[in-house]
Each structure stands twice: as C-alpha cells, then as structure tokens.
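Sample entry (462 residues):
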Amino acid sequence: MSTMDSSMVNVALPTLMQVFTSSLALTEWVVLIYLLTITVSLLFWGYFSNGIGQGTLYGRGVLVFSLGSLLCSVAPTIGLLIFFRFVQAIGASMMMAMGPALIKSSFPKDRLGRGLGLVGIATSLGLMTGPAVSGLLLRWSHWRMMFLVTVPVGVLLYVLSRRLLASIGQPAGGGVRRSVKNGFDGVGGVLYVASITLTVLLLSHATVVSSQSTAGGWPFYPVILLLLLWGAFVGYEVRKDEPLFPVELFGRRFFTMAVVSAMLSFIVLFFVLLLMPFYLSSVRRFPPDQVGYFMMAVPLCVFFIAPLAGRLHDHIGARIVASFGLANCFFSLLLLTALSAHSSGFYIVCSLALLGFGQAMFLAPNSAAALAGVSHEDSGITSSLLATSRNMGMLLGTALAGFLFAYTYARLSGGMDIRDFTPQQTPHFMQALQQTFRTGAMLALVAVTASWLRGKEKKGLS
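Predicted structure, serialized as tokens:
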C-alpha cells in the first residue's frame, strides 16, 4: 500500500499543480512531506519496537496509514493535503520500519535473501499498479479516488494483523532493549529531525531563496545553521553512551556501505520518478493513463527480477549482485540524458526498464547482507536504518532533482516556472532535464563504487 500510494502521487503531481494552481516548489511537498516524515521517524520506530513488538507496531502503522489516506481524499486545499500526507506518512513509516525485521524473524538465515526478494515482489506490485491506477483514475474519475482505494484494504489488513502478527518480533523473554528501558534519546532525536528538515527545506526551496537574495546566491545564515545542526548532532551522538543513532553499527564497513549505497540508489531512482511524468505529460503530451503505463516499466522489471536477485545473494553474496545492479542504473541514466522531444516510446520504455532491472538486482541482496550481519536484538534498528537510508534517498532525490531542474529551467527561460510551460519552451525544458539526469548518472557511479567497497559479506547471529 505504501509504495503504491507513493507511485500514484508522483504521476498525479502535474494534475495537482493545475487543480490547486500551486508552484512546483509547493506541489512537490505533497511528495516531500511524505518522504520527510518517514525518513525522520523510521529510526524512532526501530527503538520503540523493542518494547511494543514488531508485529504489533506494524499493525498499528496500517491503521494510521488508512486514516491518513481517508483524510487526504477529502483535503480541500493544497496545505491541508500536505498535512494529511504527514498523518499518512506516520503510518507508512511504522510499516516500512518493521517489514524487513519481520522477514528476518520469519526466515532462516540461509534463505533471508529469498525472503526479501519475495517482499520485493510485493513492493514492485505496489509501484507497478500505482501509476496505472492513478492514470486511470485521473482520466476517468477524480484525483481524490487515489487515496480512497487503499482505505478498505488497510482496515482489513489491520484486523488481520491483530490475529496474525501480534506474536511476531516480540522482545526475547519479554525483555526490553536497554536504550528503551533507560530512556529515549530525546535531545538526539530533536537534533536529528531538525537537521534533516532544514536540509530538505534548503534544497527544495533553493531556487526561491537564491532569487530573493540580494547577492544572487544562497543567504549565508541558513547554510551555517545547517552545518552547526549536523555538527551538534554528530558530536552529541558520538559522546553519548546510548545514542539514538547506533554509532557502533557504522564501525562495520559492510553495514556502512550497504546504507550509503542504498541511499544513493534511491536518490538516482527518484531523479527519474519525479521528472519523467513532467516530460511525458508536458513535452510529449501523453494523457495521464499513458504516463502511468510508461512509468510501470520500472516496477514491472522489479517484479520479475527481485526473486532472482534474492536467490543469487543466497548463493554468491551481495557484493557482485548489488554492484552489478547499480551499474545498470548508471547506464539507464546515461540513456535518459539522451532523451529528446521526439524520442520513441520504445527508447523511453527500455531506459526505464533498465533502471528497474538495476534496482531489483540491488535492493534484496543489499538488505539481506546488512541484516545477516547483525544479531536478533539489532534487527529492528538495522531494519529501520535501511528503511531510513532508502527514504532519505527518496527525499534527497526528490528535493535535489526538483531544485536542479527548476533552477536550470528558470535560468534558461528567463525566470519562468515549470507551471508556465508552453510548447515554445520545449528546448529549455529538454536542456534542463538532460543536465539534471547527468547529475543523476554521476551519483549512480558513486553508488556503484560504494557498493563494491563493502568487501566480503559478514555473517552474524541468527
């Protein structure tokens, strides 16, 4: 449900921008608030699960997500829609944080990659059906129906979760992790949320900030404040005996590289997921349902390839499989940098399919490698950190791609916003799109390097 919701809203961004007559910088917050809330809260659920239980927390997340979906469907303004997306994201983060941990609790270690590969099927089904469902609803019904379709399913899943998941992932012997028992790291939590939020605000509104600055560039004080916040958070966590951020896990190279490469892979992915619907709808003039069909190429490949990738991990480990997957993402971005206003539909689909193939080859092996190297006690927080890295990538990818594209387009078109696009601005649009995708290709190459540097996979406790 959570991935289907995300992919539906990405396709609907051009429609929402027209319905609410809002700018790209404001409209993209319908996506950004969802990703930002998930990113800053995932780590908290990892700790709370040690006292509540992974299965119970997952079920409550389903209920909160369903309530948020219902509220989004009746939002009368763009501001309230963004707020209700925040409520929806709280529930989604509870589900995302516990998902891999529940798989670790249910599968033996030598079949962990296969289990996560099966989860990849469910994830890809959500991503795959989202664009198609969204496109059909936007063309034949109303955008509000996008949020209503998950409500009855969510209520049913909550009822089932109370029966099927309540006993899974409970603390061993009724114990509670020491970090929870002795008190939550509130100061670290505040610094963590503030640092990420300010980072996203600066990236998503960098174009506006730059244009309003008398010097023609970014004001000095927000950048200094951002650096001070991150410095304070890192310094505080390093000195604390029981930090919010598990510093000791990042002393293991296999884990650090898994987290870094996961974040970079999703930055690259969301460069494409954010901007391609605008290209397809604004430049190519495809109707919403056809935009959805094009975007299905990414999750469709994940659907077929994810189980194979999980099985390959169980036989040869993550280093080769995951790095090969990211290399395919790099080549996909190279193909997308060559897009033109007249590129064939076959070329577009093949470029997107290659991106989906690369993501499928990377995701399950990367997650399995990180989870296999930690103990059961650390599986909840490890699962949360992996989900945090992925959503941080989605968040930064959305903000960075939106900034780079909007800034380049405004510079080339004499200060125009993408909402004012006309066919005469197509050359400027394509140049901005190509430059943004070049940046995405460079980031994909960094991700390949990080994945390869993970070294030999570690095997931890079951």
